[in-house]
Give the backbone structure.
Amino acid sequence: MQSQKTSTEEPALYAAHNKLYPREVSGYFTRLRMLSVVVLLGIYYLLPFIQWDGRQALLFDLPARKFYIFGLTLWPQDFIYLAALLIMAGLSLFFFTALVGRVWCGYACPQTVWTEAYLWMERKIEGNRGRRMKLDKAPTSAAKIRTKAIKHTVWIAFSLWTGFTFVGYFTPINELGSRLFTGDLGTWETFWILFYSFATYGNAGFMREQVCKYMCPYARFQSAMFDSDTLIVAYHPERGEPRGSRRRGTDLQKAGLGDCIDCNVCVQVCPTGIDIRDGLQYECIACSACIDACDEIMDKVSYPRGLIRYTTENAAIGKKQHILRPRVMVYATILLILFGTLLTNLLQRIPLELDVIRDRNTLYRETRDGLIENVYTLKILNMDSKAHRYILTADGIEGMKLLLDQPDIEVEAGTVHELIARLQADEFNMEERSVTVEFQLQAIEANHLTTIEEARFVGPGKN
Amino acid sequence: MASVSPLPEKIPGIQKAIAVLWPSFATAIVATGLFFSAFHPGDLVPFDLDIDVSPLAAYSIGFFLFWLLGILSSYGTMYFIISNCQVLNKQQD
Ligand code: SF4
Ligand code: SF4
């Protein structure tokens, strides 16, 4: 049911690019799509300015190697959570694709969202489809240069703002803003702002549907997630064909015509430039522009709406539809299990870590009292949002003593604290040459903050 | 399917560029993320060189090195596939 193109047309996949001039549409789905575009862009541009606990609510602080997600602070050690989140995002895409097809493409993909925004600016400045085509064909003139210059200036300004916002997710945006105005931006910050701006300008201004066609892996493999019950945008050939123009009030039966008046509006509005009447094609991003466009035509000629509509393959051929089918259930189950595991893990996560590194230079030392001494470097990572004081104990050999280079262990929020610990034990209490010992770290007045770390204690060995 | 000649010569340069630059770009992002969550840029200065790079610079340079590696690999893949197609096309003629 996928590409209806025959193999001899394959080289057309790499056809030279013809610039598209998507015609403007209005209608129910277009309004829905615009709403989605506005909400998503609003989130993107405003989110970095939201504060939480006195810092940026969403900040991937790369230099400090900490990710702040509202109340949660993730460290490089917590990489697994981010990986799990990404896997869940991927799975959700599978799930929603199986259920409702490419809604992601049409309503939420950044490529679509920014393309819509850039198209909107283009329309405001250059006019509707007809005027844009005329302008591009017109010979160079002062007026043409002026219009184009305005468009590109607006586009570039918007791109720069986009790039700035993007970097604002990685360095605190307020500081970034003030540094921008004092001209103190770092080399790499400047570089990434420009890089992201350029990518946005290129992708949303010029590449547009070509990104979907040639760069998007999802567009290529979405067919694997589709089945006959997946929601798709489809033309109703039995109703529409034979297509053809006609006069108002023509008796279709007599004229032998279907409902399609062959006005080509559905092709003109399509942001990927395809003809939905040729059947389901991988280029179709299910944006539903053609649905709104055709409905409007149907209204004008007083035919019922829905010649192009959201449907499923099964519905289209009059078969029974199944929403809860095995594929959907399997995706949903995996998703739920993953989500549950992630949540319980996050809730049980102890924001405290202890690293123990044995002194590498000396295996052991004998003290004046004849005890065996091992030296360790301890690193305490307080991943909590508060400072804590801790008690350290060690265990594993009878009568073992723990000596620290500092009386109190206090660690500020979100910092690493280093200390030297010395363990002393009597050789006679050691069963073997090398014994496993345990360091236990416990926060004072916070019982749940506790962690245990194992280490080796080495002695001369019994002869 | 002898009738379907892939005509690699007909692939526009821009699409070849995308085929090389884009997958390697995506891979480089993943590789950079994995690499730097395991290693701290401060621990990576080679051979006691006394250079002071900011973390952001280290991440960026790391990213571009990964991208470069990916580009080499993607280019290799493309080169072998295209040259192979050309050989097959010649044999068909
Ligand atoms: S918009 Fe509707 S009537 Fe017009 S060509 Fe497309 S399918 Fe036919
Ligand atoms: S065919 Fe229709 S739904 Fe598909 S991309 Fe074109 S306009 Fe959008």
Observations:
- Residues A 235, 240, 243, 260-266, 277, 293-294, 297, 307-308 surround iron/sulfur cluster (ligand 1) (CB under 6 Å).
- The interface with chain B takes residues 7-8, 10-11, 14, 16-17, 62-63, 65, 76, 79, 171, 186-189, 191-192, 214-215 of chain A (CB under 8 Å).
- Residues 1-14 of chain A have pLDDT under 50 and may be disordered.
